[in-house]
Amino acid sequence: MLKKITNYFVIPFAICVGLYLALFPKTTVDMSIFSTAGLELNYTVSEDIALLSTNEVTPQQTTYNRYFPYLGKSYLGFKEALAFKESRGNYFTVNDLGYLGKYQFGAETLKLLGVYNPEYFLYTPELQEKAFLANSERNKWILRKDIARFVGKEIHGVTITESGILAAAHLAGPGSVKKFLRSSGGDNFSDAYGTSISSYMKRFSGYDTSFIKPNKTAKANL
């Protein structure tokens, strides 16, 4: 009797399994589409985290893709946010006024940083990263007294922060930032595209820029 009852369950089950295998053959999942190869996922490194190394890049390449996790208000977050505003993070772009690269440097500023070959600069992402840091260090030295004096104060509804000051100096130069701060916002320089110092002060406020050390003679050297 037990054998008959078992047959009632085993036979239908075997039939169902056979139908399933016939209708839904085994498929192989291509795991390569989930690969993390090529992604920069290790951010536990030395202070050179700010100076991102690159693979070899040739002048024929027109894009340079990087992938970042959420960067928040870190130094990396600061420079990547500023780069996105300047060029959408494109190392190889030149705007209508001749400003170069990811951070849109002018030729005269590059000379101050020890860079005399704009074409080489344009196609060398690592040099662009070093130039950004060197320029920020130089600006921080020039504006060190103004940073100490004005950070935490409010000008035209904008709370002044160190990162806002450094971003505005990247836009307009440290001299224009001094004029803005010391005139209580009365001298509010705007660039050729209508972007003002005060807008950069607000947009890039509150980032941690303590990584940037004041350096009067900072240069961009590979």
How would you describe the shape? extended
Give me the CATH fold name of the largest domain.
Lysozyme
In the sheet with the most strands, the strands line up as 1-2
Overall mean pLDDT stands at 81
For the record, the CATH architecture of the largest domain stands as Orthogonal Bundle
Number of E-state strands: 2
State the name of the first-level CATH class of the largest domain: Mainly Alpha
The number of distinct helices, counting runs of at least 4 residues, comes to: 9
Low-confidence stretches: 39-67
Structural class: mainly alpha
Terminal Cα span: 87 Å
Beta fraction of the residues?
under 5%
Main sheet characteristics: 2 strands, antiparallel
Q: Considering DSSP H and I runs of 4 or more, what fraction of the residues is helical?
A: 40-55%
Number of separate domains: 2
Order of helices and strands: HHHHHHEEHHH
- The radius of gyration over CA amounts to 28 Å
Folded structure, characterized:
The protein has helices at residues 2-23, 75-87, 107-112, 118-122, 125-142, 144-150, 162-172, 174-182, 197-203; strands at 154-155, 158-159. It has 222 residues and is mainly α. The protein folds into 2 domains: 2-34; 47-203, Orthogonal Bundle (Lysozyme), CATH 1.10.530. The protein has a two-stranded antiparallel ribbon.
